[in-house]
């Protein structure tokens, strides 16, 4: 006599995850046949397309023997020293390579994993606060950690910076983790010192941890001593918080050095949280390959390729933004490699669908990057344009968008 097999258990929190924006976009464009008169151009995915630096490739090839040994989760001391050396040069801060930095396999996995370390789901109303629109990992990390996300919408009157005043005192009191993104994705907004001061005061009052996503920090457009975006670490030091209490900054080589396939970055800040995160990662199996560590050392120790990379983005934005500004409400962001443009009729999904159909250009509807909060979806009516391809291709896409909005 046969019996029905028992149903295996599954984490019920998996059912809470929302489809990724690109999955939703594929579903929305599934039946569309792009105009074959145009070759496809994608401005949708924020994946760097500039060539990887030769010094990184050379370091990878020169360290293949590293495949024969298990790496330490804490990373090679030389890598941690390369990271703190970069922090010293970039931010003027002296961090302890043994206790205040930790290599990670890209900022994405680290952002997700960090929430699992911080959040205590047994505490009533466990909450994680995120900007809105936002990088979807923040929401997924919160949900799988057993917390509920709360959203602070971007404010168009302040260059789309998050309006943290939308989070009331009762919500802050339940908050265990705050994700910030500066420069922001998708808006490019950079947080000033005054905003950091407000968030640090809230953190002290309510005891939550701040995770500062800074993966776009090396792509900016201004010149001069204050041109580079302010780091959360810098802000803390300037405000006398030299222990970086309850602050962890996340940085990646993906955008800075055009090596998204390497999956390499670091976290830095509060030594207490670094120690806890290292414990978690030791069990999670998050050690970085010795080859990747060697290539990362080469990347963090060289700034020439970063300057050249930034120059390419500056040239692209200078060429493309004026063309799009003729027909769309769009302006140069504070930093990052996205343009956050308003569409004429406010229908961002319809705009993306018709642009793909008529001109074979892919863009990401802003409403897919945000959630309904405080009565609105703050991404609705806008599109995100990732200027990651070569300048000629980005410029061609801009001209097609101009023709789409205002046909001749």
Helices and strands in order:
Layout: H1 21-28, E1 41-42, H2 54-62, H3 77-91, E2 101-104, H4 107-118, E3 127-132, H5 137-144, E4 148-155, E5 161-162, H6 169-174, E6 175-181, H7 193-206, E7 209-213, H8 232-238, E8 247-252, H9 253-257, E9 265-269, H10 271-284, H11 290-300, H12 304-325, E10 338-342, H13 348-359, E11 361-362, E12 364-365, E13 382-386, H14 391-405
Parallel strand pairs: 1-11, 3-4, 3-6, 6-7, 7-8
Antiparallel strand pairs: 2-9, 4-5, 8-9, 10-13, 12-13
Helix pairs in contact: 2-11, 3-11, 4-5, 7-8, 12-14
Instruction: Sketch the topology as an H/E string, one letter per element.
Output: HEHHEHEHEEHEHEHEHEHHHEHEEEH
Which strand order does the major sheet show?
A: 2-9-8-7-6-3-4-5
Gap between N and C termini: 75 Å
Q: What is the radius of gyration?
A: 22 Å
Number of helices: 14
Helix-and-strand structural type: alpha/beta
Q: Give the rounded overall mean pLDDT.
A: 96
The biggest sheet amounts to: 8 strands, mixed
Inertia-based shape: globular
In helices, the fraction of residues equals 25-40%
User: What is the count of β-strands?
Assistant: 13
Estimated share of beta-strand residues: 5-15%
Which stretches of 5+ consecutive residues score pLDDT under 50?
none
Describe this structure in words.
- This protein has 408 residues and is α/β, with parallel strands linked by helices.
- Helices cover 39% and strands 14% of the residues.
- The protein is built from 14 helices and 13 strands.
- It has an eight-stranded mixed beta sheet with strand order 2-9-8-7-6-3-4-5, sandwiched between helices.
- Helix 4 runs parallel beside helix 5 and helix 12 packs parallel to helix 14.
- The longest helix is centred in the C-terminal third of the chain and has 22 residues.
- The relative contact order is 0.17.
- The mean pLDDT is 96.
